[in-house]
Amino acid sequence: MEFIETKLAIVLLDLIGSTQFVQSVGAMKSAQWLQYHDRLARSLVYRFNGREIDRSDGFLLSFERPIDAVNFALTYQETIPPKTRLGCRIGIHWGKIVEVKQAEIYTMTGAKSVELEGVAKNISARTMSICQAGQVLLTLEAMKAIQGRTNSFTPKGTRYACVGEYRFKGVKQTQIIYAVGSTIESLQPPPSGNKVKRIGGPSQIKSRIRDRKLKEWIVWFLVRYCLIMIFYMISTLIPIVINPYTRKMNELDDLFHWVDYIVDFIAMFLGGVF
Questions:
Q1: Which CATH architecture has domain 2-206?
Q2: Which end of the chain is more exposed for a tag (fewer CB within 10 A), N or C?
Q3: In angstroms, what CA-CA distances link 179 with 103, 159, 163?
């Protein structure tokens, strides 16, 4: 047995609703479908120089470079769920971890050849636990290691956004969490979870001008057009309403005769003050 302390990007990938999926389609069909998913996921792990540590309802993975972990997660979310129809959430943390290399005598009986121990694994798991479907979250430590960079393997339109500060159960320090993705939906701040409490942060991440889609531009235009029209109508109507002569000319006297009382009251009030 060997213990090695090192720094790694720890990735926790969780399949959402996997238990319900197994119950709905049966053990044999679910096993075949999940193996199909695992083949696709493992091909990406290999492509981005990752290493599979464990597998249960998802994967525990490690990467030597944080940018490889992010590129794996983004490429996974863009390509695999549409093929498998299985939702996924991914948490990433960069920190010190202890690699435990098991003795051959234990691996012969089914033990994993390499295990990871340390709070970095717990932080990655907590980060993953508050992810929404299709979301990739990473800690401040991972963000600092990446420095917001991208490379030729990063999907186009990728954007980082700080989604808030959270307190993780069992972890002393609060955690600043970032979302990374190419859609505005994937960047929205997640709420508190069972073992995670949201302390603060933005309530919503807004789309950048260059990222806005046609629907967002139409809404943006209509809202401003309506506001301009309301202001125009008010500014046009007020001079007509407060003047008795213009009210009669426009046949509005019966509707707005009460305005005279308000105008007289304001005039008396101002006269009394000054």
A1: 2-Layer Sandwich (3.30)
A2: C
A3: 38, 8, 6
pLDDT in tens, 67-111: 999 999 999 999 999 999 899 999 999 999 999 998 888 888 888
Q: What is the mean predicted confidence (pLDDT) over 98-127?
A: 91
Q: What is the pLDDT of residues 30-57, one digit of tens each?
A: 999 999 999 999 999 999 999 999 998 8
Q: pTM of whole model > 0.85?
A: no
* CA-based end-to-end distance of the chain: 92
Q: Angle, to 10 degrees, between the axis of helix 27-47 and the axis of helix 18-25?
A: 140
Domain positions in the chain are: 2-206, 215-273
Nearest CA among 177, 5, 187 for reference residue 93: 177
Residue 53 and residue 97: Cα distance in Å, rounded?
13
- CB atoms closer than 10 angstroms to residue 151: 10
Q: What is the pLDDT of residue 252?
A: 53
One-letter identity of residue 133: A
